[in-house]
């Protein structure tokens, strides 16, 4: 026999959601120097509860996909090809339900491809240019025949110095006809 007065009572306690920590940026975007016409971009690595949302900023203002810019709401922002008007300070906001965090600023420096001059002096041929992107690498290549398929031979690889000048001297010119090109990998 059961006693009606001994029925159990169930109480309802409010359920508190667990606190979700804000995302953490583990690898921030890095500064980049490129010549106009090359590809450029930034990436960020963040940890936190999924889904993580991204919004890239230029000068503190949100940017959108369009033209040469893609990935504005992903962890990788791309400029294909980069143009001088893309130069600026970039950061990214990473958010999820627990909040958000903004990366530090990374500079994108897109410089025009420098105008080249070639002079013949007592020291041989001198290839020069001003306004290169400091720290960018360049390769000078040479061929003696432009007929297809031209075989380009690298004769110098160097890094653009702190003055932004590109220079190259060729003193071993025994071929009557030589063609040069400058690559910015």
List keywords for this structure.
mainly beta, 3-stranded antiparallel β-sheet, Immunoglobulin-like, 185 residues, 0% helix, 6-stranded mixed β-sheet
Structure description:
- The chain is mainly β.
- The chain folds into two domains: 24-111, Sandwich (Immunoglobulin-like); 117-183, Immunoglobulin-like, CATH 2.60.40.
- It has no helices and 17 strands.
- It has strands at 24-27, 32-35, 40-43, 45-47, 53-58, 61-62, 69-70, 76-79, 88-96, 99-102, 106-111, 117-121, 124-129, 137-143, 153-159, 166-170, 179-183.
- A hairpin with a 2-residue loop joins β9 (88-96) and β10 (99-102).
- The mean pLDDT is 82.
Please estimate the helix content: under 10%
Tally the beta strands: 17
Main sheet overview: 6 strands, mixed
- Count of DSSP H/I helices: 0
Structural class: mainly beta
Tell me the distance between the termini.
Answer: 90 Å
> Radius of gyration, rounded?
29 Å
N-to-C series of helices and strands: EEEEEEEEEEEEEEEEE
Short description:
This protein has 185 residues and is mostly beta strands. The protein contains no helices and 17 strands.
